[in-house]
């Protein structure tokens, strides 16, 4: 049987408990090293909070106040004209081939070289859109006997365009490999890019052609 603790042992136990309670670490948060501020103190530092709007009209009024001073009609018109002029200037630089304003698909010397190759020659692919529109119009207005003859013509046109697209892509990749031996872009992407540009009418190409037909590209 264990006996009752002696007075010395009781005093040691009481002293240990008192020491733990008196340590400053017990009243602070370990990670931050300082007491967590009370909610009232945090709200006082943050300042007064505006109550939520009760109606939609009050919400619109508050949005206008937060948006700054209201512009006059003349100022709004001037801002609109400035924004339109900036957009027109960016588009003009893009159409002129300025690399800083081009779309990501058109940037770089390799893509510029591909565009010059396509723009310097006549492509059968360039006749695809007008020829397709003409055949569709004829098929809609022609009698059934003629429509039966136009369907094979449409298939033949698609086949010719596909062959010309492959030839354009092959020629472009060959010239790109000769001029840019360190190019890492796949031939399929460059060929598709060249064929897509060749299938557009010359006046509708963006960026606009920088070379004339018949110019020698090397």
Question: What tags apply to this protein structure?
Answer:
218 residues, mainly alpha, 60% helix, elongated
Summarize the structure.
With 218 residues, this protein is mainly alpha-helical. The chain has 8 helices and no strands.
Q: What oligomeric assembly is this protein in?
A: single chain
Give the mean pLDDT: 79
Largest sheet composition:
none
Number of strands: 0
> Count of DSSP helices?
8
Strand content: under 5%
* Percent range of helical residues: 55-70%
Shape: elongated
For the terminal residues, how far apart are their CA atoms? 107 Å
SSE sequence, one letter per element: HHHHHHHH
Low-confidence stretches: 7-30
Whole-number radius of gyration? 39 Å
Alpha-beta classification: mainly alpha
Structure description:
By secondary structure, the chain is mostly helical. Among the domains are: 32 residues; 101 residues. α6 packs antiparallel against α7 and α7 packs across α8.
Topology:
Layout lengths: L6 H16 L16 H8 L9 H11 L6 H23 L13 H11 L8 H14 L2 H36 L7 H12 L20
Helix pairs in contact: 5-8, 6-7, 7-8
